[in-house]
Amino acid sequence: MNKLPLTTLCYIENEDSYLMMHRIKKENDINKDKWIGVGGHFEPGESPDDCLRREILEETGLTLTGYRLRGIITFTTTNWPTEYMFLYTATADTRSVSPCSEGELVWVPKSGIQDLNLWEGDRIFFRLLEEEREMFSLKLTYEKDTLISAVLDGIPLDSVKESNHS
């Protein structure tokens, strides 16, 4: 069965850090060498919350103490089918994580996140999270690995650089 085009992504917070995954373990990984949050594809019958809790437990061993849906992201590109991602933030009461087969899990201080090798669209996520923006809809269009357009709540962002400063 093909994977559903629905995913979750979560930035788990503990103190002043986010749990980030450095994607260095999987072969043929679209996220190879990138730093991303934790999450994955829905299984049939799952709600976004079900998928979130399952993926976090499978990839980190953590049980979340709280979580909040922050946005819905639509990814379009010529490289793969359109994907719809539910973006969450969450809290956990421990920093102790299990080894993960998909990448190296590291608690990264929030002040150091922008120094990581991130997807350009993820830089927009972090800006919106820092602003404590309420629920948002973000459409990101990539050409290969390059972000060519971003539309936030129906309004085009003129450029990724502008979106990091507005």
Descriptive overview:
With 166 residues, the protein is α+β, with helices and mostly antiparallel strands. It is built from 3 helices and 10 strands, in the order ββββαβββαβββα. Strands 1, 2, 3, 4, 5, 6, 7, 8, 9 and 10 form a 10-stranded mixed β-sheet that branches. Mean pLDDT is 90; it is low at 160-166.
The fraction of residues in strands falls at 35-45%
Evaluate the radius of gyration.
Answer: 15 Å
What coarse outline follows from CA principal-axis ratios? globular
User: Structural class of the helices, strands and pairings?
Assistant: alpha+beta
Q: Tell me the number of helical segments per DSSP (H or I, 4 or more residues long).
A: 3
Write the layout of secondary structure elements.
Blueprint: E1 6-14, E2 17-22, E3 35-36, E4 38-41, H1 48-60, E5 66-77, E6 83-91, E7 104-109, H2 120-130, E8 136-143, E9 146-152, E10 155-157, H3 160-163
Parallel strand pairs: 1-6, 5-8
Antiparallel strand pairs: 1-2, 1-4, 2-3, 2-7, 5-6, 8-9, 9-10
